[in-house]
Write a structure and sequence with these properties.
Length: 476
């Protein structure tokens, strides 16, 4: 397209000017190449944001690899993972404890006693001493399925603990990837604001030159100066967010990361926008259930087992075999004018069957009611998690598809805003238009960059959520 047609399109899309101004514009079309503004800064930022070109496969591998390393570091050192590992170990020990109820219980008890009494009326003094040693064996023969129920409950607790460990692992991995994405987003936002400072500074210098030449009024200098100050303030704010997001990422990587361990990785992470698939991934429905669904179902089964166990404890008798072997000895002495001593030793053995059966126990009756309510709550929670998982799948399918549709319009809007800004800059330099149209064009240019960056960030974020869902973890 030649310069005359470009200027004609520009006049149709922006604002109306007088016939005399139009002649100046047409004449300006032939001298514009010498006054064209340098747009290398904008193109550089556009390249960082992925507007000019897609990241190379090497860049994708480098950035993807460094984020994977950060995730591995966090999973190896973060306290949350240590907590879940300890809970799993404790649940396994509880299973072994429940299985131990089938084994006999053997106990040993011993006692030594010494007594002394004085009868003041008869002046008789009595002394006695004794010792006993008792060995007891208790084997439960039948408890109405209570022992088997405890093993099942403990095994279910172990399954829940293992699922919670998976949840914590996936949650931490997502948190690290999200922190890396947020840092990248903040760094790119800062890069836009820094470029805006340079553009605003250049524009202020231009307005000052034109003011000295008598081509514009002082108001242009004031306006461009205020624009530069605003740009610097926005850059300071963006830099603060970048530092904050960097610290959040380092917090997941343990205290050792504070000693500049990840400076090189973070430098690469903030060098350009994180890559994303150029084409939408397969968003077909995911067949597997999420970890949260599995945990909810496990808790539901646990509640059912707990209710069954409450009924067994309340209504079923128990039968135990108890065997004892006891040895006792005692010695007594009476001193009341004449001394009388006696000694006694014995060895006893016994074997007995003991039955116990609770006929009336209001405490356990109320425990049954509570267990039934817990079962109802666990069932409702499982339905809630299942609905949330299905809703999140459907939402992500819609959101990701729509975000991909937005990319090309935003890319084209950036190109048009870039052309419009260059044209307005040339017209302002030539004195055809005032400062306000140029400021508006600059604002539009920055807005298109922001729209593109935010759209890409939302796409990356929802793709991250989708990847977690594919692995079976629902992001709340």
């Amino acid at each position: 397209m030649n310069k005359e047609n470009f200027v004609h399109r520009l006049l149709q899309k922006t604002w109306k000017i007088s016939f005399s101004q139009m002649s100046l514009v047409m004449a300006f079309g032939f001298i514009a190449p010498g006054l064209k503004a340098d747009s290398s800064r904008l193109k550089k930022i556009a390249g960082l944001l992925g507007l000019e070109e897609n990241p190379s496969s090497k860049d994708k591998q480098d950035i993807g690899g460094l984020i994977d390393r950060m995730v591995e570091k966090a999973l190896a050192t973060h306290p949350d993972i240590k907590v879940e590992e300890a809970r799993v170990a404790a649940s396994r020990a509880n299973v072994d404890s429940a299985r131990g109820r089938y084994q006999p219980n053997i106990g040993l008890s011993a006692s030594i006693s010494q007594d002394r009494s004085n009868n003041l009326n008869d002046e008789i003094e009595t002394k006695s001493s004794g010792s006993s040693l008792r060995l007891q064996l208790r084997e439960n023969l039948w408890r109405g399925g209570q022992d088997a129920g405890l093993i099942k409950i403990s095994s279910q607790d172990q399954k829940i603990a293992e699922l919670q460990q998976v949840e914590s692992t996936e949650a931490l991995a997502f948190a690290v990837r999200l922190a890396a994405l947020n840092l990248n987003h903040s760094a790119m936002r800062e890069a836009i604001e820094v470029a805006s400072i340079e553009d605003a500074s250049e524009l202020r210098s231009l307005s000052e030159r034109k003011f000295k030449a008598g081509q514009v009024g002082k108001i242009d200098v004031y306006t461009t100066g205020m624009r530069e100050t605003s740009a610097r303030a926005a850059a300071v704010q963006a830099a603060g967010r970048t530092r904050e997001d960097r610290q959040k990422l380092l917090a997941y990587l343990s205290s050792s990361a504070q000693n500049n361990d990840f400076d090189q990785d973070i430098s690469l992470l903030t060098s350009r926008s994180l890559p994303y698939p150029s084409q939408s991934p397969d968003l077909a429905a995911i067949a597997q259930s999420t970890t949260q669904e599995q945990t909810a179902l496990a808790r539901q089964s646990r509640a059912e087992l707990s209710l069954s166990q409450s009924y067994k404890q309340r209504f079923m008798p128990s039968l135990d075999l108890v065997g004892t072997a006891a040895r006792t000895s005692s010695e007594s002495q009476f001193d009341g004018g004449a001394t009388d001593k006696s000694k006694f030793r014995s060895m006893d053995y016994s074997l007995a069957l003991q039955m116990s059966w609770a006929l009336w126990d209001r405490i356990q009756d109320h425990q049954i009611t509570a267990a039934a309510a817990e079962k109802t709550a666990a069932s409702a929670h499982a339905d809630s998690v299942r609905l949330a998982s299905r809703s999140e799948r459907e939402r992500l399918q819609i959101v990701i598809t729509d975000l991909y549709k937005l990319l090309e319009p935003y890319r084209e809007a950036y190109r048009q805003a870039d052309q419009l800004y260059d044209a307005q800059r040339q017209l302002y330099e030539a004195g055809v238009v005032g400062l306000l149209p140029l400021i508006t064009a600059e604002t539009d240019k920055l807005q298109t960059l922001s729209n593109w960056q935010e759209s890409v960030y939302q796409l990356q974020l929802n793709l991250l959520r989708w990847q977690s869902l594919q692995r079976g973890y629902l992001i709340r």
